[in-house]
Amino acid sequence: MIMNKFLHLLFSVITIFASLPVLADEVVFIPSETPVSGQLSDHEGPDSVAIDGIQIAITNGDFTNGNMYSFYQGQTTTFSSEVGVITKIEITSLYRDIEKGGPGHFVSPSTGTYTFSDSVGVWTGSADRITFQTPAASLKASRIVVTYTRDPNAVAKPRINGEDRFLVRSVVSISAQQGDAVIHYTTDGSEPDENSAVYSGPFYIYNTVTVKALAMRGENKSSTVTAVYHLGETYTVEQAIAMIADSIAPDYPVFVEGWVQQVNSFDNFSGSMTYFITRNRNDIEPGLRVVDGMGMAGVPFSEDTKLKNKDQVIVKGKLKPVEYFDVYENGMSGSLLFGVNGVTTSLEQHFVPEEQKDDDAVFNLAGQRVDKTYKGIVVKKGKKYIRR
User: pLDDT for 215-261, tens place per residue?
Assistant: First the structure.
């Protein structure tokens, strides 16, 4: 009799717990608060962003703009989770319905249901991976909220951050997506395990290096993430023009040294500039047209930092024919300024020293502590952000 009562009580308790609702977690993606990835300098090509094991990836887009996430036309976007099942995605756009940039341009979800109204699109379903297409026009999002049911044993891959195609040296940082995870890594291309070096802070590399890392929480471990960072190549304007003409320009960013001969435009909203560079201070041509280039380390140009004629520059970007007033010219796209008049800087050359890593501290690229009014690239807890 006592045993029957005990079993009945136990069954009742199990039933009560089974009937309780599963608590859902949320991850909120906001462009101005999202950690900057390795694609800071390139506004075209694959891009991705991840928070707490939830990732958004695009085959061609731009997640580095401080105002919006850009999902380009004709591309595939993938939402994925390493830490549980996604049940809802809410996308807030800068535009309405099927206006260019509006939420109506996410179509053909691989699973679940997607609807939109005004400036908000909502997907509902149950999956750890969902893809969307943008066949008709691009989508511009100012906020994305992903709701998911957490797997308590799951461990998200760490994020490896650094600037690929660097000059002299690059600094690499690795961050865990879950606060209690321990990161193990290697820099010789070998697979990391629990016996590999424990990550304790950013480190410099001086040559092409393959970095691999995994995260561990107790006995549970993530899959391995890999990043390859290459020592960059520097060319003269003449060499760059020849490679474009012969269709042998590499499909990755390179560095070109030259002199500014024409400043064509400065966009106050995006902070980009279009300008023309030649091989020396007095040449008018031949040259390269840098279209919609950004400033030092990818930071938007301002009235104080914009280029002027006769500036000596080192520009990082992809060599290709670029369209300028309906005419294609030799040029560079996805460009940023690496150096001007003998002063060089880059995102990879700066990190926060160990003694400066208190939880609320925010620093500029020079390692100086800044307040909340500071605009540009800042470093907090070893991660880089754009403040606009």
Answer: 999 999 999 999 999 999 999 999 999 999 999 999 899 999 999 99
127 has which bridge partners?
86
- CB-neighbour burial class of residue 222 (10 A; exposed 0-12, middle 13-18, buried 19+): buried
Ranges of H-type helices in 103-236:
none
Structure tokens given for 5: 């009562």
Q: pLDDT digit string (tens) for 123-137?
A: 999 999 999 999 999
Query: In 3D, which of 212, 82, 203, 71 has the Cα closest to residue 140?
Result: 71
What is the reported pLDDT for 293?
Answer: 92
Taking Cα atoms as reference points, which of 228, 225, 286 lies closest to residue 259?
A: 286
Asked if omega into 286 is within 30° of 0 (cis), the reply is yes
> What are 314's two structure tokens?
């080192």
Phi, psi of 201 (to 5 degrees): 170, 170
As a whole number of angstroms, the distance between CA 235 and CA 218 comes to 49
Q: Is 149 left (phi over 0), alpha (psi -120 to 50) or beta?
A: beta
Model's pTM, two decimal places?
A: 0.68
Cβ-Cβ contacts under 8 Å for 155 (sequence gap 6 or more): 82, 83, 178, 181, 215, 216, 217, 220, 221, 222
Q: Is 113 helix (H, G, I), strand (E, B) or coil?
A: strand
Contact predicate 18/12, CB 8 Å: no
Number of alpha carbons in the 13 Å side-chain half-sphere of residue 3 = 0
